[in-house]
Design a protein that fits this description.
heterodimer; A: mainly beta; Pectate Lyase C-like; 14-stranded parallel β-sheet; 13-stranded parallel β-sheet; 4 helices; B: mainly alpha; 12 helices; about 85% helix
Chain lengths: ~425, ~260
């Protein structure tokens, strides 16, 4: 018994000593410590640096120890366009509540507002980034979080703008609740695996809302992508989950809701594609599952460019798209089943909710438009309807096995929260 | 002219045909809305109806009216009335009553359905406006045909041929030429070809509203300027006005010189 008390006392004593060790350094204009750089120099592993409201004209802030840097009432760090602003090079760093502006623009170095290099266990949250080149740049970082940041860029062209959240060779990172607008790519991932991208809003970006290159096993859930060059671009990646996203109003000649290039074994479920020039454009992608999506008022719902095999398009709603599916070539190995097509004109005599006549989503006209794009001006003409009808009766140009054998008679109600 | 317009108009308003026409559109609107229960889909179906049926009815009705009222016309010609005002008055009487039947017949069910609270209101009003334009254009063309052909059978034949040409054959030729010359830049050609056919013109005008996202998918600077801005909308309307004015001018000219 006595022994146990002794251990307890020792433990309490030990804890209080470590508590004493981890001190808080306050930075403000009237404090003893006036600059963030100075505070970081004084701080030791596990300390907290509390920065009060004010404008701090500092660049090249290097955090090489596991400290917590907190801003009170959003202090501003002004980099004065001298290059990178904050660089994190240690594990377990927390960065919270700053407004970071004026990153230098360079054509040789990717300057970032916040860069994380070779670190793990970082948390970057509640930042406001403006006048940036690259926003939050994670390189070879792992097990971290990027939460609730707000990024407002001023990107006009692709070549002299950067990405808001940039991940390069990262693992197990959570990107959640960020609001990124007017940059080049909203969120960019290259060689990054097991990343969760959730509840983000990516809007008005010059190139893509979300961009994957060579990144596998990632989750994209509950995000909104709006009026970007293209909503999501997935390229050369495997085992992706894209679920519950809203992808809308990506308009233009090279605008897509979702661009899939060389993507294998991905799941695209429960998404809403609304008013995009092309809902999904697919090229060289195999074994994908498209289920429970809504394609509403798009120019093309799905544009299949070629070399796509064993894909399944099941239980989706295709509503008022100008073209449901556009397809190249005569060979089809993809399965369309149990979808609802608003253009379906068949009947259901046995009243089982499934149309008795198969639906052919590829029209001859979409084939003609692929060949001669100017013919788009004849869309919805009576003559086009007549040739589409004759093609439907006896397919010559479109693959004759590309059809939905069990088209639904009623729109599916997808639970979307 | 206004007096004759009034006579023709009231004459038609009392006639059975206007009511049939009106009831047809009323029924169409009701069926589309209340069996379909989907406004966007109804507007698309309606577009097909308007760009095909309205020109057909306009032509047939115009020709029919002219031949039927020939005796009355000859009576009027004996009076001290200007020729242009007789024929233009008749033309505007027919076209206005047809356009009214269309707008009221289609408008009523949609108003009861609650179009004012829906964001499809602009698409819908555009539909009605182009419908009215098409009525004026094709009635005018029908009058031109009827005025230049004494023979009723011939006149009807030409009228139907005109409709068939504008609604179907023209697009066929248009498509063939596009496919045949696909190696050349065609966007200017295709826009001009569209302008030269009022049916295509109205179709494109409605497409600008409905299928804009697909039209924007095409990479061509001329198309981009046309579809991407208000320029296309304004130009299409201007062309529609031209399409009304030019045949009306022909009515006036032929009527002035014609021997009765």
């Amino acid at each position: 018994m006595k022994n146990k008390f002794y251990i307890l006392f020792l433990l309490i004593g030990f804890l209080s000593v470590t508590n004493l060790w981890s001190k808080t350094i306050t930075v403000c204009a009237t404090c003893p410590v006036k600059s963030i750089n100075e505070a970081i120099l004084q701080a030791e592993e596990g300390d907290t640096v509390l920065v009060k409201k004010g404008i701090y004209k500092e660049a090249n802030i290097k955090i090489e120890k596991g400290i917590t840097l907190i801003g009170e009432n959003m202090p501003t760090i002004d980099g004065e366009e001298k290059g990178e602003i904050i660089t994190i090079g240690a594990d377990n760093v927390t960065l919270d509540g700053f407004k970071i502006i004026n990153v230098g623009l360079s054509y040789t170095t990717d300057y970032a507002s916040v860069r994380v290099v070779n670190s793990s266990g970082f948390t970057i949250q509640n930042l406001e980034l403006e006048k940036l080149f690259f926003g939050i740049y994670l390189q070879k970082a792992s097990n971290g979080k990027v939460l609730n940041n707000k990024v407002r860029g001023e990107a006009v062209t692709e070549f002299n703008s950067g990405n808001a959240v940039h991940l390069w060779y990262c693992k197990n990172v959570e990107v959640r609740g960020n609001d990124v607008q007017n940059v080049r790519d909203g969120i960019y991932l290259e060689f990054s695996d097991n990343i969760t991208i959730k509840d983000n809003l990516s809007k008005n970006n010059v190139r893509y809302g979300l961009h994957f290159m060579f990144s596998n096993n990632n989750f994209v859930i509950n995000n909104i992508f709006e009026t970007n060059g293209a909503g999501i671009a997935l390229m050369f990646s495997k085992f992706m989950d894209v679920e519950n996203n809203i992808i809308q109003k990506n308009w233009g000649t090279a605008a897509y809701g979702l661009l899939l290039k060389e993507v294998n074994d991905a799941h695209i479920k429960n998404n809403l594609f609304f008013e995009n020039t092309v809902g999904i454009t697919v090229e060289g992608s195999n074994r994908l599952e498209y289920a429970n999506n809504d394609f509403t008022s798009n120019g093309y719902a799905i544009k299949v460019k070629g070399a796509c095999y064993e894909n399944r398009v099941i239980d989706n709603n295709f509503l008022y798209n100008s073209f449901d599916i556009s397809y190249n070539g005569r060979i089809n190995d993809n399965k369309f089943n149990n979808n609802y097509w608003s253009n379906y004109t068949g009947y259901d005599l046995d009243k089982n909710g499934i149309g008795d006549v198969a639906y052919r989503p590829v029209k001859l006209f979409s084939y003609i438009v692929n060949r001669t794009p100017e013919t788009i001006i004849l869309m919805r003409s009576l003559f086009i309807d007549i040739i589409d009808f004759s093609e439907k009766v006896s397919p010559v140009f479109t693959p004759d096995d590309l059809m939905d054998e069990n088209p639904r008679m009623k729109q599916i109600n997808h639970d979307r929260n | 002219m206004l007096k004759i317009l009034k006579y023709s108009f009231y004459d038609l308003m009392r006639s059975r045909w206007s009511y049939v026409y009106f009831l047809f559109y009323l029924l169409l609107g009701v069926v589309l809305l209340f069996l379909n229960n989907d406004l966007s889909k109804a507007v698309i179906t309606l577009m097909n109806v308007i760009i095909i049926l309205v020109p057909l009815i306009g032509t047939i009705f115009g020709v029919m009216y002219y031949y039927n009222s020939r005796e009355f016309t000859e009576l009027l010609l004996a009076q001290p009335v200007k020729r242009s005002s007789i024929f233009l008055g008749q033309y505007f009487g027919v076209a206005t009553s047809l356009a009214l039947s269309l707008v009221i017949g289609l408008g009523m069910p949609f108003v009861f359905y609650g179009i004012f609270n829906s964001n499809a209101i602009w698409d819908f009003s555009l539909l009605l406006i182009t419908g009215a334009f098409l009525t004026f254009i094709f009635t005018a063309l029908a009058f031109v045909i009827a005025l230049s052909n004494e023979n009723k059978i011939k006149g009807f034949g030409y009228a139907i041929l005109l409709w068939l040409f504008m609604a179907v054959i023209y697009d066929g030729l248009f498509l063939m030429s596009l496919l045949y010359f696909e190696d050349y830049p065609l966007d200017k050609f295709s826009l001009v070809a569209t302008m030269l056919n009022p049916v295509d013109l109205s179709r494109v005008l409605i497409l600008l509203k409905l299928d804009i996202s697909a039209l924007l998918g095409y990479t061509g600077a001329v198309f981009q300027q046309f579809f991407g801005t208000n320029f296309g909308l304004i130009l299409s309307f201007v062309m529609l006005v031209f399409w009304v004015v030019i045949p009306t001018f022909f009515i006036w000219r032929i009527a002035k010189r014609k021997d009765f």
